[in-house]
Amino acid sequence: MRGAAGGGHAPRSDPAVTDRPALADWAWRPVAWSRPLGGMQGPIAPGGQVLAPGCTLFHDDRADAVALHQRATPEGPTAFALELTLSAFAGSYLSFAIDLPRDAATTLTRSHVLRIDAVAQGADALFARLNLRHGPDTDALTDRLRPEGAGLRTELDLGFTPLAAGGVTAAWVDLSLSPTTELSVTLTDLVLTRRPRAEL
After folding, report:
1. Which of 5, 75, 105, 126 has the most Cβ atoms closer than 10 angstroms to its Cβ?
2. Contact 94, 152 (CB under 8 A)
3. Terminal CA-CA length for the chain
4. What is the 3-state secondary structure (H, E, C) of the chain?
């Protein structure tokens, strides 16, 4: 699931993402919010269930405790929203693992800031962990998404990571919720953007 190194060309952006920070050179909405999931819906098996290419939902409870459905949102900013329901959930974690596109991952450097914007209803807390594989090592930046306008946002500064000279070979975001016994969450949108960090 984790990609290999690529070239230094600029990554492809999603033209449908119009709300971008100044100087952003990349913007992307993951496929689970932009294309139909097909049959990858309903009860979610523990240990990791692939929802779409590069998007996997992980949890550690029984399958009938977690259900996910995708619905069309013609009135919203995205083509689709994800509805997540927990019923008598007794596990300890619930997380989406979202692979960054290869060309975006392999062109990340310490001079970048990665911004994550989400729109979620029903979630008490949402956390993002950016995982960066470089050489034999994997480093991570973690933060809670905080209210920003009508949604939630965090900005992860790669300048605080000890990236190896060979560059990033793979990157993925773990988007985690704080699970409770009963929970109903709608993830209406998720957008990742990249911009240069300010020089210190």
Report:
1. 105
2. no
3. 35
4. CCCCCCCCCCCCCCCCCCCCCCCCCEEECCHHHCCCCCCCCEECCCCCEEEECCEEEEECCCHHHEEEEEEECCCCCCCEEEEEEECCCCCCCEEEEEECCHHHHCCCCCCEEEEEEEEEECCCCEEEEEEEEECCEEEEEEEECEEECCEEEEEEEHHHCCCCCCCCCEEEEEEEECCCCCEEEEEEEEEEEEEECCCC
pLDDT tens column, 6-55: 345 668 777 677 778 888 999 999 999 999 987 667 899 898 999 999 99
pTM for this entry: 0.89
Residue for token pair 């496929």: 31
Q: What local confidence, expressed as pLDDT, does residue 39 receive?
A: 66
Task: Give the phi and the psi of residue 184 in degrees, each rounded to 5.
Answer: -130, 115
Q: What is the distance, to the nearest Å, from the Cα of residue 181 to the centroid of all Cα atoms in its chain?
A: 23
Residues 172 and 178: their CA atoms lie apart, in Å, by: 19
CATH topology of domain 26-196: Jelly Rolls (2.60.120)
109-125 pLDDT, tens digit per residue, is 999 999 999 999 998 89
Give which of 147, 191, 186, 185 is closest to 173, Cα–Cα.
191
The pLDDT assigned to 3 comes to 36
Number of neighbouring beta carbons within 10 Å of residue 158: 21
